[in-house]
Design a protein that fits this description.
This protein is of the alpha/beta class. It folds into two domains: 347 residues, Rossmann fold, CATH 3.40.50.1820; 256 residues, Rossmann fold (3-Layer(aba) Sandwich). It is 34% helix and 19% strand. The chain has a nine-stranded mixed sheet with strand order 1-2-3-5-4-6-7-8-9, with helices on both faces. Strands 10-11-12-14-13-15-16-17-18 form a nine-stranded mixed sheet. α3 links the parallel β4 and β5. α6 packs across α8 and α8 runs parallel beside α9. The relative contact order is 0.11.
Length: 669
């Protein structure tokens, strides 16, 4: 087994991330995420129980998976412009160094292994790589699979992943490099990898050596994930053998496996699907999977539950023999045994032949000889911009008429409510409020507000000693680590007048103990698995706090103002979008793009923050201290409503609460 002696390590997607679990600063948030993941897995289990329950849902779930991969609608199939830069004759097989463009100037580098001895067209296998590292592409680390397939009568194309190819791209945008706009775009590198594999099928169909009706796919780790996704969305894959790459979201969140995975392993799960759906979308086409009982990346309870449920689905189609899970006593490792089992599987289902003695010996070619571009890739390559090419951010160009704007507004609100910001499962009633003791030395009283099942958030309230009629109310959204005394400074004028009810809410995982970056990233990535971001869950807390504030004695429910600083200002904008009873918002130094927060899954597919402000029109939106230039575009929408004065600059919360949208009042009053 020569591959075991290599100095490189065939890494799992994201291996190298610290595996030691760190105690959560906010354990109740983690418990809530786990509970939601269990609900998702339970729902999927019911949906895919048998063909009768599954078939009516298949088309919708297929479309959702494509959407969560960034492939709805399909990208345009532009010319592949294939090129073979070199051919190696290895005696009983040849290796072609191949490149093609899956998208304009997005180059896929690959090795195509072809058996020399062929009796007509042969079946073909797409092999997708895990995260081995080589300057010549990770295809070189998996060449033994191409050799074995070719020597046993298959054409085999091994694709470089964009993470470790001959041209730069990345899989680790969120997990390591904190490209949080990936989640706001609902971009996963799995999307471009699946598209590359789909275009590889297109390329294989053009080859005279290949029988296009007999194409299979396999890979380990990250390659397993791409096999799951591609076979689920493209029926041209007639048999799939993903090796070490599946679980359930219930098991994954329980074990917090996100710590060891890269971003390519998962779709952006705003449809709230489970991995069980991927297996169901492949069924009843032949499916082989394999797992190691010592593999911490794919928990044993998860893949065994998957095996039980999907095995039952295959049986309901009358084809239990088409599905199999192999369990080996290893960790996350490849082996000669699994390589041989995969070929035997393809023999049965693509060649229709009984068991035979397979030729499994191989001798690796030096990696540099398998390089397509030999260290001189095309200078015009755009692989590093895959997220922008697949999912460009729409520009905000305000319509010229109010009717056109209202049409666009309705479309945006529908997308926000149904896809980007769906409400978590929460009671429809007014939130329960528990009143705590007064804050020592301050005129605030502490509250706890129930916002989700088993989860409450902290809030503080202060009100005038005497209430003469219904009063305006302010809900201030605290940022991470923002102390109450800091907020007091911003609200000092309102405190001095003491003519309003003021509440400060600390949404989940926001408090005087700031989240460590590792924890914040872990919560964000786990929240994505249940169809949310940490910010979208915080937004839900804000909306529940608004309901609680409305229910407070002496509050005028028609005169609620929201305020916050930075990302919290973004939460205020969207709370006002979703709750049209909110009278106005005050924004303190808000970000100008969702690339800087708040992070909502897929929001940048539809709009960015300046257009979000326009959605609040014609209600009042004030900017504290200054109006960032990108927001000036929203003023055109306020103009359409005949209310240009309702987007304005303020430096005084007291005036806002009392209905003043200008500066024509005495500051000493």
């Amino acid at each position: 087994m020569q591959w075991l002696s290599r100095t490189f390590l065939l890494l799992a997607c994201g291996a190298g991330v610290a595996a030691q679990e760190m105690p959560s600063t906010y354990p109740e948030v983690t418990r809530h995420l786990i509970g939601e993941a269990r609900r998702i897995t339970a729902t999927a289990t019911r949906e895919v129980a048998d063909r009768e329950t599954w078939e009516p849902l298949r088309a919708r779930r297929l479309e959702e998976l494509r959407d969560s991969l960034g492939l709805l609608p399909w990208p345009q199939k532009t010319p592949l412009n294939p090129q073979v830069t070199r051919v190696l004759d290895k005696g009983d097989y040849v290796v072609e160094m191949v490149a093609f463009e899956s998208l304009p100037k997005v180059y896929v580098t690959a090795n195509l292994f072809l058996p020399k001895r062929r009796d007509g067209r042969v079946p073909a296998i797409i092999y997708v790589c895990g995260h081995a590292f080589s300057e010549h592409g990770n295809k070189t680390a998996y060449q033994r699979h191409g050799i074995s397939l070719a020597r046993n009568g298959y054409a085999a194309i091994i694709l470089d992943s964009i993470q470790t190819a001959e041209l730069f791209g990345t899989h680790h945008g969120v997990g390591r490099q904190r490209f949080l706009d990936w989640f706001s775009r609902a971009y996963t590198p799995a999307g471009i990898e699946v598209w590359n594999a789909i275009r590889a099928i297109d390329y294989l169909e053009s080859r005279p050596e290949v029988d296009a009706s007999r194409i299979g796919m396999t890979g380990r780790s990250g390659g397993a994930a791409m096999t799951w996704f591609t076979a689920a969305v493209d029926g041209r894959i007639k048999a799939a053998a993903p090796i070490m790459g599946i679980s359930t979201y219930a098991a994954n969140l329980e074990a917090d496996t996100q710590r060891g995975h890269c971003d390519c392993m998962f779709p952006i799960n705003f449809p709230r699907q489970d991995m069980l759906h991927q297996g169901a979308l492949i069924a009843p086409r032949p499916l082989l999977m394999a797992h190691g009982i010592k593999d911490a990346l794919f928990p044993v309870p998860g893949y065994r539950e998957f095996e039980r449920v999907i095995g039952g689905l295959f049986a309901s189609y009358g084809h239990p023999e088409r599905f199999r899970n192999i369990e080996v006593d290893t960790g996350h490792a490849d082996s000669d045994y699994l390589r041989e089992e995969a070929i035997a599987f393809f023999d049965r289902h693509l060649m229709g032949r009984p068991a035979r003695k397979l030729r499994m010996d191989y001798e690796n070619t030096p990696a540099e000889e398998l390089s397509v571009f030999r260290g001189s890739p095309p200078a015009d390559a755009r692989n590093h911009l895959a997220h922008e090419i697949l999912l460009p951010v729409p520009e905000f160009d305000p319509p010229l008429t109010l009717a056109d704007w209202e049409t666009r507004r309705s479309r945006l609100l529908k997308a926000l409510r149904e896809k980007v910001l769906p409400a978590p499962a929460a009671p429809a009633s007014v939130p329960m409020i528990r009143r705590m003791a007064p804050v020592a030395g301050q005129p605030w009283r502490e509250l706890e507000i129930d916002t989700d099942e088993g989860l409450s958030v902290r809030a503080f309230i202060r009100r005038p000693a005497k209430t003469d009629g219904a009063l305006p109310a302010l809900l201030y959204i605290a940022s991470e680590g923002e102390e109450l005394r800091d907020i007091d400074g911003i609200l000092s004028a309102a405190h001095r007048r003491n003519a309003s009810v003021r509440m400060v809410v600390y949404p989940r995982a926001t408090g005087l103990t700031p989240l460590r970056r590792t924890h914040a990233l872990g919560l964000l990535r786990n929240a994505m698995h249940i169809g949310h971001s940490l910010d979208s869950l915080r937004l839900h807390d804000v909306l529940r706090a608004v309901e609680a504030l409305r229910a407070e004695p002496g509050v005028d429910p028609a005169r609620i103002m929201l305020a916050g600083e930075g990302v919290a200002a973004g939460l205020a904008i969207y709370a006002a979008i979703l709750d049209e009873r909110i009278e106005q918002v005050a924004l303190i130094r808000p970000p100008v793009t969702h690339s800087d927060g708040p992070v909502f899954l897929g929001v940048l597919r539809h709009l960015d923050l300046p257009e979000a402000v326009a959605l609040v029109a014609p209600r009042r939106v004030s900017f504290y201290e200054r109006i960032p230039e990108p927001y000036e575009a929203a003023r055109k929408v306020f103009d359409l409503y005949g209310r240009p004065e309702r987007l304005f600059l303020t430096m005084h919360f007291e005036g806002l609460l009392e209905g003043l949208a200008n500066h024509g009042f005495a500051s000493g009053n």
